[in-house]
Amino acid sequence: MKIIFAKDYRQMSRKAANIISAQVILKPDSVLGLATGSSPIGTYQQLIEWYRKGDLDFAQCRSVNLDEYVGLGASSDQSYVYFMRSNFFDHININPANTHIPCGVNPNEKEECARYDALIRSLGGIDLQLLGLGPNGHIGFNEPDDFFTKGTHRVHLTEATIQANKRFFECEEDVPAYAYTMGICDIMQAERVLMVVSGAGKAGIVKEAFFGPVTPRVPASILQLHKDFTLVADEAALSAL
Ligand code: GLP
To answer: What is the spatial distance between Cα 28 and Cα 77, in angstroms, rounded to a whole number?
Structure first.
């Protein structure tokens, strides 16, 4: 595990974007595992800026996103497919046909989860997986539990996650109760994992996840066992260490 210190959110975003751009330059047809939430937005903005300057080319890249709310489709501005288009895909030259997100409006849970795992396999796995960190230690939507779930699955979101994510919705009642998420094995099999974390509100969970025991009660703690895991965090997020 490598920890890269950043002064603030902006510097964290630039450092993370540097790592992703090196990946894309070294392997133009990389499979990028992508994340939503407020943490990676600055990273996407930096990548867009470098793309506009002509320094980056996403034409051959493929992407797989971590998760999606069950019941939300592309037309819903709270869906992760909408988030990814408006914050990243619409501003770079990635081929939309090569961007993949679990289908929140597929009511057939078994079929959707099997389809997504087969898709990741058919792409040859993930070269670099970008992650944020949920306030309860979740990655993607892998919530604290008694066990790690390996593959893509449908998850009942915890009250803590609903509370944390309600800021993106008009009211708490609008936050979907379920989501599809990649599993822990999908994430752990990525060649490289890169996490961005910012703010004092995450300081406690950063300490627990990366300096405490590996436990499904803190899903991100499994990343301590990954062969190439890099945490880029700002001073506030690292303040409890
Ligand atoms: C959501 C996403 C996670 C993300 C988390 C943290 O729950 N499913 O992938 O890491 O939010 O969000 P933020 O970066 O806004 O704190």
So the answer is: 30
Q: Is the CB of 35 under 6 A from ligand 1?
A: yes
55-78 pLDDT, tens digit each? 999 999 999 999 999 999 999 999
For 192, the 3-state DSSP assignment is strand
Whole-model pTM over 0.85: yes
Q: Which atom of ligand 1 is nearest to the CA of 161?
A: 7
CB 53 within 8 A of CB 209: no
Q: Nearest Cα to 134, choosing from 125, 123, 145?
A: 145
Which member of 65, 98, 136, 142 is catalytic? 136
Beta bridge partners of 32: 63, 128
Please spell the DSSP secondary structure of 128-188, one letter per residue.
EEEE---TTS-BTTB---SS---S-EEEEPPHHHHHHHGGGSSSGGGS-SEEEE--HHHHH
Residues in the chain, how many?
Answer: 241
The preferred substitution site among 165, 186, 218 for testing ligand 1, maximizing ligand atoms within 8 Å of CB, is 165
Radius of gyration, alpha carbons of the chain: 17
